[in-house]
Design brief:
The protein has helices at about 5-10, 55-65, 90-105; strands at about 35-40, 45-50, 70-75, 105-110. By secondary structure, the chain is an alpha+beta fold.
Length: about 120
């Protein structure tokens, strides 16, 4: 067993945890992409993304942008076999909406194959 640093030995509680991560993961063949638009008149954001889990994404994006949930609409059409790999929020999703508001027109954010891994 390794010698623990003094701070760990003196801690009130020490947690040891063994985890296991499988080596199998879903890697979609479709590129990740998003198109966002901000409508100044209504104050609403519209995101069209190749993703799943739009209800969760809507809530997370509204929180990130600091706007009411009703101000965000997320649409994802048929994305093929998802198996949960596209249910997360990706950095380009809130960024294309922020950029659209900033520049006053729609903004897109494709992710290259290298960024998907």
């Amino acid at each position: 067993m390794r010698t623990q640093p003094t701070g760990v030995r003196a801690a009130a509680h020490v947690v040891r945890l063994k985890t296991w991560v499988q080596r199998v993961t879903g890697v979609p063949m479709e590129a990740r992409a998003a198109v966002g638009n901000y409508d100044r008149q209504s104050g609403r954001y519209f995101l069209h993304a190749g993703s799943g889990g739009v209800v969760r994404q809507k809530a997370e994006i509204a929180g990130m942008l600091g706007v009411p949930l009703a101000s965000v609409q997320v649409v994802a059409l048929d994305i093929g076999g998802n198996f949960g790999t596209k249910n997360s929020i990706f950095p380009e999703f809130p960024l294309v909406l922020w950029a659209s508001r900033r520049i006053g027109r729609p903004s897109s954010g494709p992710a290259s194959a290298a960024k998907r891994f």
